[in-house]
Amino acid sequence: MDNNNRNNPNNGNKNDKKPKNMNTIIIILIAGVITFIAITMLNSMIKDATYKEITYSEFLQMIDEDKVSEVKFDSDRILIQPSDSQKDSNGFSYTYYTGYIKDKDITDKLDDKGVTYSGYIPDQSSSIIDFLLVYVLPILFIYLMFTFVYRRLSKGGGMMGGMGVGKNTAKVYVQKQTGVTFKDVAGQDEAKESLTEIVDFLHNPDKYASIGAKLPKGALLVGPPGTGKTLLAKAVAGEANVPFFSLAGSDFVEMFVGVGASRVRDLFKEAQKQAPCIIFIDEIDAIGKSRDSRYGGGNDEREQTLNQLLAEMDGFDSSKGLFILAATNRPEVLDKALLRPGRFDRRIIVDKPDLKGRIDTLKVHSKDVLMDDTVDLEAIGLATSGAVGSDLANMINEAAIAAVKDGRKVVSQKDLFEAVEVVIAGKEKKDRILSKEEKRTVAYHEVGHALITALKKNAEPVQKITIVPRTMGSLGYVMQVPEEEKYLMTKDELMTRLVTLLGGRAAEEVVFDTVTTGASNDIEKATQIARAMITQYGMSEKFGLMSLETVESKYLDGSARLNCSDETAAMIDDEVKELLKECFAEAKKLLSENRDVLDEIAKYLYEKETITGKQFMEIYRKVKGIPEPVDTSHMTISEKVAESVSFNEDGSYSSTVNQAPPAPWEHPQQTEAQQPSPEQTDKDVPAQNTEKEEDRNTEQ
């Protein structure tokens, strides 16, 4: 019997109607209560605004003073219309009323004063119309409004869903509308190889299914900003010719509770309808952050969204061709449940490109740019160590803009190197004028850096020295270019780098017997390297092979966290101090022993303001009595490149052959800068000279 009732469709319909009828009754009751309250409040407000109650005595007094123009007798009250003299400047006056009292003499008084009076006869038909307009029509309107909103909310699948808040906001690109293929992605060969397998699976699922292989449910693209993670995802969709859902992790987040989970459900529902397809979630750490309190756990709304995402990734059938791509530059904060196999099966590293990758990337971004015969992208690639794809694309565009501003129709090597230099140190500040003493100090500071590189065998060769102020705050800097791409550094090379960084401060002390604020960034960089040698690289005899520091968010700021006690941290500080003290002493010794070379090069730099690495080495060899090399095979790569460019009196480039000197990008010893002292006065130097000057050295 129970089974029959359970399976009877008529019974099911009756059960379905009950909730609907109940909802209708509830809506009508709510609408009636709201309408009654609203009308009562409205009548009260209107009455208070236009009617005013007075006593019967006041009414009689108004008649005696000729302040009444008309009177209406109602069944329970008397309405008094005041005369025109009672109106204010805007023509407004209250309609007074008082309680009805049986007074036989009232009509005589009104006749004596010539006041019009009348009785009130209620109109039954008018009362019915008023009732309908005042009570029934508002209730009906509110009922219809509630019904409309309720239905929209029901269709939305969640709180505020019917208003679009619960809907997913993914952009859908169908077929090749992404406009990107693997040919548009350069410098990421390993990442492309991993994703090519996914594309092949989407094209030929039977080939893999025949052997029992299954399509991975998802892949996580990990790497620094600007390396092309989003571009790779679009290339996968473009190669696979399947619909591509693209959205950011923040698109799931709203102020309403439950919206994130609703959007996840809606996204997967739509994606399964269009399978095979690809879902790409950029910056997934916005919703996939670990539920551990250490990473800001405890946000119920974000956890609901994450839980729904985990459930959906477990629930869909990968054999239908639904694949999830996600990108992040903070993989360490993602929830462990999100990273396990069966959800994001693969982690694809999209790192900064190497030399070959940078050259290939430059070729991709310059294919539509007109360039002359002087352009050598290999030299640019060598000069931009540490640059990512977006940096290189921006540099090509800046070079093209510079060529147009110069009135030329093609980009030259000079434009490209100037673009690199602008990114490193900013544009030249031609309006900044240094005092003679400051200019001399900056010259010795920069030559101090450069001379150390010539005296130390492990140093990278100098490419350019300048004391021309730049918009990023530098009063001068030294360019250095590695002779080859390096992935490891020895302890001797790091020690040489420390000595070079401290060479500017050492030169100030040797020559002027005082110091300036210009070495602040040099000291900061040197301290970072020295601390890393002790805490991360195990290059301290005192601490040996202990790991004392952990780098967090290595794809972003790379901030470090000590893994030791406060006592050990104090000992680390002492060790760093001793290491820097040792390197500074060596820098002072080298510069003191070669004071003649320091003075000669600083004098030349003071006059010219900008010199090349070749000119620097010529003066160095001349003062040291070293013969000039005749065979170019004895020259370094950077010296050979420097042969192709000369500098005009204003410091600009003049390209002569098919190469020009590269500029460093992100190397710890690429640039050295001089910073002005905050104590400088307007008398010594213009006010703008007090801007903070940054050493353009950056770590490799």
UniProtKB/TrEMBL annotation:
Lineage: Bacteria, Bacillati, Bacillota, Clostridia, Lachnospirales
Record's keyword terms, sorted: ATP-binding, Cell membrane, Hydrolase, Membrane, Metal-binding, Metalloprotease, Nucleotide-binding, Protease, Transmembrane, Transmembrane helix, Zinc
HAMAP family in alphabetical order: FtsH
Pfam families: AAA, AAA_lid_3, FtsH_ext, Peptidase_M41
Protein known as: ATP-dependent zinc metalloprotease FtsH
Ranges of biased composition (kind: Basic and acidic residues): 680-700
Record membrane topology: Multi-pass membrane protein
Polar residues bias: start-end ranges: 646-659, 668-679
Localization of this protein: Cell membrane; Membrane
Name of the encoding gene: ftsH
Residues at the active site: 446
Gene3D superfamilies noted in UniProt: 1.10.8.60, 3.30.720.210, P-loop containing nucleotide triphosphate hydrolases, Peptidase M41
Molecular function in Gene Ontology: metallopeptidase activity
Family: In the central section; belongs to the AAA ATPase family. In the C-terminal section; belongs to the peptidase M41 family.
Domain AAA+ ATPase: 215-354
Cofactors (names): Zn(2+)
Protein function: Acts as a processive, ATP-dependent zinc metallopeptidase for both cytoplasmic and membrane proteins. Plays a role in the quality control of integral membrane proteins.
Region listing for Disordered, in residue ranges: 646-700
Record flagged with keyword Magnesium: no
